[in-house]
Write a structure and sequence with these properties.
The chain is mainly α and about 190 residues long. The chain is about 60% helix and about 5% strand. It has helices at about 25-45, 55-75, 85-100, 115-140, 145-170; strands spanning about 10-15, 20.
């Protein structure tokens, strides 16, 4: 397989099923943002120490799920096959949000994003995945999408936030509260 196909040289790309869209199309933007989020998660994985092998495993699984989301977004309809993103994947993320959150010291306020390099990169991945979610919401206002994919992306941002806090805590780095934040976590 060649890496280049020349198929996109005129500004269009193929979706699952063969239809072509402009590379600026909202569907292409949505799955492109998912791809970007997966790359940032990969960067985060590269920064993790062996202390965080459990985090690494979850992030690698999340990358697999994001490929499923991207494949779902590349389909215009179910005529191109069944959706890949499942309730089981969403449940997996929810279970791990709860599991890792139990390991954290209690929080009451929003925090400033930062800390250890690995934690900071997880915060970046979280914001990128939230942008991807916004692109998906924009797309779903005009076209059908797999709503389970949207659920998964929403949970992924929550899990990335929790993992960033956990990596900082394990690195013994104190979170900095947003000073004007009301108590939002109880």
């Amino acid at each position: 397989m060649r890496i280049y196909t020349r198929g996109g040289d005129k500004g269009k790309t193929a979706l699952v099923g063969g239809s072509r869209r402009w590379k600026s199309d909202s569907r292409v933007e949505a799955y492109g943002a998912i791809d970007e989020a997966g790359a940032f998660i990969g960067w985060s994985i590269s920064l993790l120490t062996t202390t965080n092998n459990d985090v690494r495993h979850i992030l690698q699984e999340m990358q697999q799920f994001l490929w499923d989301v991207g494949a779902d977004l590349a389909k215009v309809s179910l005529n191109e096959g069944e959706y890949r993103t499942t309730q089981e994947a969403v449940d997996f993320l929810e279970t791990n949000i709860d599991r890792f959150q139990e390991m954290l010291s209690p929080r009451q306020k929003f925090v400033l994003r930062g800390g250890a390099q690995a934690a900071s990169s997880l915060h970046v991945a979280c914001t990128v995945i939230r942008r991807a979610e916004r692109r998906m919401v924009e797309l779903m206002q005009s076209e059908e999408i797999n709503e389970m994919a949207l659920h998964l992306v929403n949970r992924a941002s929550d899990l990335l936030f929790v993992l960033a806090l956990l990596v900082n805590e394990r690195s013994e780095i104190q979170e900095i509260d947003y000073e004007r934040s009301p108590e939002v976590f109880r």
